[in-house]
Amino acid sequence: MKRLAVLASGRGSNLQALVAAQAEGILGDCAIALVVSNRRTALALDRARAAGLPTAIARLGDFPTRSEWDVALDAILAAHRVDLIACAGFEMILGPRVLAGYPLRIVNVHPSLLPSFGGGLTAQSDALSHGVKITGCTVHFVTAEVDAGPIILQRGVPVFDDDDVATISDRILREEHRALPEAIRLLADDRLVVDGRRVRVLPALDRTRSL
Ligand code: GAR
């Protein structure tokens, strides 16, 4: 059973979706072992405590440099024997230490169809102002380049004429809540094969077949 850390900065609805997926037994061969936030008051931490999950806080401001924050976060993850990491509304860019420790083991959910509207925290309003007719969410591997790692899966949603940032964000979020647990399940079950920028999904093992 792999140990999953969820990194979250705010509301934590994607964390909640992962907690629900685990309870339903659809998170694959992994269990949430830790929730880390860079904000003491993150609602995600309350949700984690309510679910009985261990929590940790790694605030950039508590360290003299970003590189020391990176090392401290890496130590927290190691202390909890983490195998996989999900960035679920995590506003911080991970540092080289954490990235090197978990190659192709860190995923992020982003509220747009990458490579459109990446690189920031305003993807939904950027998509609206650009006038796209379809947007959505992307779950991708985290690499040193922000929002640019190989794409695991995407889900599209329509943009309607009367949408505002709140309505389009809600519609995307509902898809995020399905896409992130699905991507974690595929990763935990070793079903993702990365070939350059392309990620192929292996068929599910038929566990009823004897070897
Ligand atoms: C989600 O929409 C997530 O995709 C987005 O923050 C929100 C967090 O919601 N992340 C980014 O924009 C990262 N660039 P949540 O805290 O309720 O899961």
In terms of per-residue confidence, which ranges show pLDDT below 50 for 5 or more consecutive residues? none
H and E string: EHEHEHEHEHEEHEE
CATH topology: Rossmann fold
Q: Determine the CATH superfamily.
A: Formyl transferase, N-terminal domain
Described by strand count, sense and barrel closure, the largest sheet is: 7 strands, mixed
How many strands in all? Answer: 9
Distance between the termini: 21 Å
**What hetero molecules are bound to the protein chains?**
glycinamide ribonucleotide
CATH class: Alpha Beta
Structural class: alpha/beta
Instruction: Tell me the radius of gyration.
Output: 17 Å
User: Tell me, what's the shape?
Assistant: globular
Strand order of the largest sheet: 3-2-1-4-5-6-7
The percent range for helix content is 25-40%
Q: Beta fraction of the residues?
A: 15-25%
Give the averaged pLDDT, no decimals: 96
Q: How many structural domains can be distinguished in the coordinates?
A: 1
In CATH terms, what is the architecture?
3-Layer(aba) Sandwich
Tally of individual helices: 6
